[in-house]
Amino acid sequence: MLQELEDNYGYLFEKDLLKEIYTSGVIKEVSEGQKLIEIGDYIKFMPLLINGAVKILREDENGDELALYFLERGDTCAMTLTCCMGDTKSEIRAVAETDTRLIMIPVQKMSDWMSSYKSWQNFILQSYQSRMKEILEAIDTIAFLKMDERLLKYLRDKAMVNKEDLLKTTHQNIAYDLHTSRVVVSRLLKKLENENKIKLYRNSIKVIDL
DNA sequence: ACATTAAGTGATT
DNA sequence: AATCACTTAATGT
């Protein structure tokens, strides 16, 4: 596992810090579709992705979901970053997009290392910045109601995190993630197919224009 | 062969 | 862009 850490985080953190992560972190493996964090859960651990991908979702008062962004190798959840100061409930839900390996680090350690490791501090600040940027991007696409662009971005992101241009999903599931109706998704997908950006099959979509 | 589920389409708001 | 109502196509039993 130490080797695994070096392979994935060696370029970010110094040896001492990797050792610390190794001793206080716990490896967790989740399979596709499994829930990692539910809305309202108290956040006790900070996840560090080793491989795989995690989908971050928001939910409204009716229980309707909205996919915000994906986490990949080297990413961590911005939500946990803000709550090292005390017990905070999660505002989001995290679901494994693919089979995923990650390290769970107690939030206590997270703030300890902020003062003792410069590289850790940079990592946290940079993660925070890039998550913030993604959320702003998400707001932009939603606010300006460009559903076709949202859909294409979603498909590309999904293809990227899955490292696979053939997405195994249904129009209904996409509609759920984008918080729209299946009919709209079907029509927009059809349009994208006519523009030769994707190819449609039953239960799967091939993304061509990556 | 029949039921179920996914996807396509026209019309309406 | 959302919803409805309906059709067509694919898949499972």
Radius of gyration of CA atoms, rounded to a whole number:
18 Å
CATH superfamily of the largest domain: Jelly Rolls
The whole-number mean of residue pLDDT values reads 89
What pattern of helices and strands is seen along the backbone? HHEEEEEHEEHHHEHHEE
CATH architectural grouping of the largest domain? Sandwich
Q: In terms of per-residue confidence, which ranges show pLDDT below 50 for 5 or more consecutive residues? A: none
Summarize this entry quickly.
The protein has helices at 2-9, 15-24, 78-81, 107-116, 118-143, 147-162, 171-178, 182-194; strands spanning 26-30, 35-37, 45-51, 54-59, 65-71, 93-96, 100-106, 166-167, 198-201, 204-207.
Q: What tags apply to this protein structure?
A:
210 residues, alpha+beta, Jelly Rolls, Arc Repressor Mutant, subunit A, 2 domains, 4-stranded antiparallel sheet, 3-stranded antiparallel sheet, 8 helices, 10 strands, elongated, DNA-binding
What does this structure look like?
This protein is of the alpha+beta class. It has 2 domains: 141 residues, Jelly Rolls, CATH 2.60.120; 62 residues, Winged helix-like DNA-binding domain superfamily/Winged helix DNA-binding domain (Arc Repressor Mutant, subunit A, Orthogonal Bundle), CATH 1.10.10.10. 45% of the residues lie in helices and 23% in strands. The strands form 3 sheets. A 4-stranded antiparallel beta sheet has the order 2-6-4-5. Strands 1-7-3 form a 3-stranded antiparallel beta sheet. A hairpin with a 5-residue loop joins strand 4 and strand 5. The chain is elongated, with a radius of gyration of 18 Å. It binds a DNA duplex (13 and 13 nucleotides) through helix 8.
